[in-house]
Amino acid sequence: MKGFRSILVVSLLAIGTAMAPSARAQMFYMTTSHDMRSSKLVGMAVYNDRNEKIGTIDEILLPATGGEVTAVLSVGGFLGIGEKLVKVPLSHVHFMSDKPTMPGGDKAALMAMPKYAYGFGGGGGG
Fold first, then answer.
1. For residue 20, is it within any domain?
2. Which end of the chain, N or C, is less surrounded by CB atoms within 10 Å?
3. Tens digit of each residue's pLDDT (9 = 90 or more) over 37-69
4. Which residue has the higher pLDDT, 16 or 77?
């Protein structure tokens, strides 16, 4: 009986470990009250509904006067070279699983959007 309990405990630990990444990923950016932690969203890859990576969240922008929260996405490029920043409404990014998705999102369409600049040091912002 003692051997059976050991096997049961090891099996349960293995199942818990196999399930943990998805649960951990959701817990990573979501609080128990279902609020998203912006500090944890920055750096996350964004995928389309075909599971293709279309960009990375570079920043979350909160309008000072109220209004729609936006995300700045880094798209294109390779290892930080040739990337472009674009600004999209955060409501276009869905957070229903362990990875953010933009249904119908297309890297080429994002690359065709106007370039966004933060505007530090006198540069224009979008």
1. no
2. N
3. 888 889 999 999 899 999 999 999 999 998 999
4. 77
Number of folded domains that form the chain: 1
What is the per-residue pLDDT across 106-116, written as a single tens digit (0 to 9) for each? 899 999 999 99
Decide the pairing of beta strands 45-48 and 101-102: parallel
Helices (H), the chain: 2-29, 38-41, 107-111
Measured between alpha carbons, how far is 123 from 112 in angstroms, rounded to an integer? 21
Q: Bridge-partner residues for 78, per DSSP?
A: 81
Long-range contacts of the stretch 15-19 (C-beta < 8 A, 24+): none
Residues facing 70 on adjacent strands: 61, 89
CB 86 within 8 A of CB 72: yes
Residue 8 lies in a domain: no
Query: Nearest 10 degrees: CA dihedral of 112, 119, 46, 35?
Result: -140
**How confident is the model over 1-20, as a mean pLDDT?**
43
> What's the CATH number where 69 sits?
2.30.30.240
**Of 67 and 126, more confident:** 67
Range of the domain at 111: 36-122
